[in-house]
Amino acid sequence: MMLETIKTTYPALTQRDFRYFWFGQCISLLGTWMQATAQQWLVYSLTKSALLLGLLGVAQYGPIMCLSLPAGVFIDRYPKKRLLLFTQVSLMLQAFFMALLIWTEQATYENILMLAFLLGLANTLEQPTRQAMMPELVGRDYIRSAVGLNSAIVNVARMVGPALAAALMVEYGAGLLFFLNGISFIPVLWGLALIQTRPAIVQDHTAKVLQEIRAGLMYARTNRVLLQGLLSMLIVSVFVMNFSMMAPLYAAEILGEGLDVYGLLLSALGAGSLAAAILAASRAQGSPSLNVLRGSGLAAAALLVAGTFLHHVAAAVVLFSLLGFCCILFITTTLSLVQLHTEDAFRGRVMSIYSFVFLGITPVGNLLTGVLMEWAGAAGGLVACGAAAIIGLLLIEWRTKNKT
Length: 404
Description:
Elements lengths: L1 H8 L6 H32 L2 H28 L2 H24 L5 H30 L4 H30 L1 H21 L14 H14 L1 H16 L3 H12 L4 H23 L8 H18 L5 H28 L6 H14 L1 H40 L3
Helix pairs in contact: 2-3, 2-5, 2-6, 2-7, 3-5, 3-8, 3-14, 4-5, 4-7, 5-14, 6-7, 6-11, 6-13, 9-12, 9-13, 9-14, 9-15, 10-11, 10-15, 11-13, 12-13, 12-15
């Protein structure tokens, strides 16, 4: 009875291939967040430098920013299952090698930076490939459910992984966390090996890479839904979803609190995100509405502005819960719309554009947010970011609505 209820509520789980893939990701993403926590702690403990810690993020996200578009061409040229097997093995080896360096006391900032860059290279191909493969696992009818379920496990891992990592590091050090992350890729590889779905037809592309990139960009530009979704994601990523920069300054300057309240705000953000992901995954069939995309994006931006007037911890916790809810609702709606309005021949290139505007733009967003908050303070920076996002989203809506 319970099994039938789960399948009815979350229809993507009725698909055999998606179940193999999803359960593997449940374990792997936990390891990924454990490693991310260990990596940040290790770099700071070695360098005691916020600047060098920031450069680590540039090394990891820089490849996504620079190479996402070429990666999309290769995703459209080659079977996605084969590409995912390659990237998962690469990520697994990176984790094992980092664990070996720590255990042999050979870990330095330079080789951590290099391995972070290699991690970024692998993620440049892995992220859009994983998204582009989704229709092959569940079909178009259950795309929204699959996107919501994936967002749910990401948010669970984001909440549980760092806490588990902190507890284990105290007893066993950072090396164990990298090793456990390497082990966590084994279920993913096993699940990929069992997937038997018929892949989308991979065409024999003879055009040059730059020509295919241009064709993908033109395809996205001429489709109103894709254009609005991708541009809206760009605006929200740059101005709204910079929580690693905003949350500590909000806790310190606006609330006048310390580390404990900072952690509470992040927990509230995660709880709201999880609630939105579960809602998006349940009974989600068909295509979502552009009104939901527009409304959730504007609501998230407006919450940033409203936050400057809240100086009590309880009110701030509610605000961050709502902010997490709106952001994940916006992300799942955007991704579902992009998936459902993209032809298979262009799926890899479109998902690479999505990966760029969602993840690749992270260094720019963090830098811009940091500059605004340094110049105008936490409150002024939040108002500037929220107002810029609202204006940008309204301009995109006006431009795409009047587009021929």
